[in-house]
Write a structure and sequence with these properties.
mainly alpha
């Protein structure tokens, strides 16, 4: 069995196990938490704001990808980025892989630009890396510049120190790759290998070298990533307010949401299902009371609201894709 199939089976299995454990825990702690979600009076304007914030985050990822593709000289428009971005987002709900949507995007863009397939793949890979880098920067900026309720939590402080080291390592490694891409391309070219793999590697090095000469594009992509994670933090906070129960403040959400997203990005689960929910619930549970204790399961309810936002965004994206094709 191919390795990718094994990984997909593991992801589905881990996500299913995590969701089952969370559901069992919810019933043991709070009875039927889903009834509480549907029956509790809601502040709909706040929930609407949460959906809009989640939508802004998604649109910023499309804009970031557009900038990275155009920087490589690929014939690509902002309309294409929106159309294919929404398609990829929608396909993520059906692909048995966390990169399923990216595969659809790469195939369609490459079909329209048959001579730039390697550049398209490079743009998607860099887009993923820049997104993760922006998450680390956003978390570090918020955690070390504001006094949140998590500042006094030893577990989060230890994680923050680790994230700081990861960001420093990513900065050094990324800079080294960009600065050395040109030399690597020339060295590989001098080897004179003419097989398919050698050609792909050479063009990949050339693509990375192009980013080196477009630093403004990389800076804008990182800034968009920071906006993405700020919007996601706002979406969770607005959702918490919309559910009308005790919850952490906005600054605390700017710490806990990036951490939960980082856990959800690990390749052991399917699109972060189960991992994201478990991380948010745990961080809610260790949040000091301010001023009232947060009820058990509240983090899961906020995640459920966010998941519904993603479904609504995917349906909106499908409608946009169909309309754009016409």
């Amino acid at each position: 069995m191919p390795l990718r199939h094994v990984l997909s089976i593991v992801q589905v299995g881990v996500s299913t196990l995590l969701v089952a454990v969370l559901v069992y825990w919810m019933r043991a702690q709070q009875g039927d938490l889903f009834d509480r979600f549907w029956e509790t009076p809601k502040a709909w304007p706040w929930l609407g704001a949460g959906f809009l914030a989640a939508l802004v985050a998604v649109l910023c990822t499309f804009l970031r990808w557009y900038l990275l593709v155009v920087a490589l000289g690929v014939d690509f428009t902002l309309g294409d980025a929106l159309r294919l971005g929404f398609l990829g987002y929608f396909c993520n709900f059906f692909a048995v892989s966390s990169v399923g949507g990216d595969v659809f995007k790469a195939v369609l863009v490459a079909r329209e630009n048959p001579g730039r397939r390697v550049e398209v793949v490079a743009s998607i890979a860099v887009d993923r890396i820049v997104g993760l880098y922006g998450l680390l920067l956003f978390f570090i900026a918020v955690y070390w510049s504001t006094d949140t309720v998590f500042t006094r939590v030893g577990t989060v402080r230890a994680i923050a120190d680790t994230v700081l080291m990861l960001a420093a390592g990513a900065t050094i490694s990324g800079g080294a790759v960009l600065l050395g891409a040109g030399g690597l391309a020339r060295r590989w070219d001098r080897r004179g290998e003419a097989n398919f793999a050698a050609t792909v590697v050479l063009r990949l090095f050339h693509a990375l070298r192009l980013y080196r000469y477009r630093p403004l594009v990389l800076v804008m992509a990182v800034l968009l990533s920071v906006i993405v994670h700020g919007s996601l933090s706002a979406s969770f906070y607005f959702s918490a307010r919309g559910l009308a129960a005790p919850h952490p403040d906005f600054a605390a959400h700017c710490v806990l949401v990036p951490l939960a997203m980082l856990v959800g990005s690990l390749p052991l689960t399917l699109n972060g299902i189960g991992a994201l929910e478990g991380a948010v619930e745990y961080l809610y549970s260790i949040c000091p009371p301010s001023p009232q204790p947060i009820p058990a399961g509240q983090g899961l309810l906020v995640c459920l609201a966010y998941r519904l936002f993603t479904v609504a965004t995917a349906l909106l994206g499908a409608w946009y894709y169909i309309g754009a094709r016409r």
